Backbone:
């Protein structure tokens, strides 16, 4: 099993550009999550999907949209990137009724 | 790899010593706690978890202690090894919610 995979690993955007971060898991997990990690601030939840067909806002959803494409895939979209969105983005997943989250390797995004 | 926490508190220990990493939480409604290890350039990895009906749980070389009275969580690593060098995060889950709330992390440096 590959676990949780994320693409791309690195990305540089100009202010105002859009992009989609991709996440996929092959563990048949029900729930998926998107976090951002800034220096000294730990991980902050952007959006999550408790199950296929549902999405909910987390702590810092502004400027982002998500799509739970199917049980395996959960994408994060930045419609108009801003320098404040420079961060490392992690995707995670969990089994139903469990709380241990399995993380992907991250995407480092820089917005200039 | 990514710079995760340029200004994190740092614990420096000698190889072979025991390490204790502390975490304070503020939400008395949290009923599940988890420790993650994050190496440079990688996503967080699960170490150990504990539910609020317990005050101690042991794994391989690691022990988590929970003191609900003072809302304090600690991770003890026995016989610390160079491979334990990483940033360690505690996270908590509030009863009834799926998402975790992460602390800001502690960097562990193991001196050979």
Residues:
């Amino acid at each position: 099993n590959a676990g949780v995979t994320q693409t791309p690993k690195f990305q540089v955007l100009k202010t105002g550009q859009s992009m989609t971060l991709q996440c996929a898991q092959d563990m048949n997990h029900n729930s998926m999550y998107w976090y951002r990690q800034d220096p000294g601030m730990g991980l902050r939840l952007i959006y999550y999907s408790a199950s296929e067909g549902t999405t909910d806002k987390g702590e810092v959803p502004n400027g982002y949209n998500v799509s739970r494409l199917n049980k395996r895939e959960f994408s994060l979209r930045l419609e108009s990137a801003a320098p404040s969105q420079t961060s490392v983005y992690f995707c995670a997943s969990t089994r139903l009724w469990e709380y241990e989250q399995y993380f992907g390797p991250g995407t480092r995004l820089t917005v200039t | 790899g990514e710079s995760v926490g340029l200004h994190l508190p740092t614990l420096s220990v000698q190889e072979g010593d025991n390490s204790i990493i502390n975490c304070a939480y503020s939400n008395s409604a949290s009923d599940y706690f988890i420790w993650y290890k994050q190496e440079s350039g990688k996503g967080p990895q699960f170490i150990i978890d504990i539910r609020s009906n317990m005050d101690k749980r042991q794994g391989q070389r690691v022990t988590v202690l929970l003191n609900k009275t003072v809302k304090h969580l600690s991770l003890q690593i026995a016989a610390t090894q160079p491979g334990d060098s990483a940033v360690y995060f505690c996270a908590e889950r509030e009863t009834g919610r799926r998402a975790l709330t992460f602390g800001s992390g502690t960097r562990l440096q193991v001196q050979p």
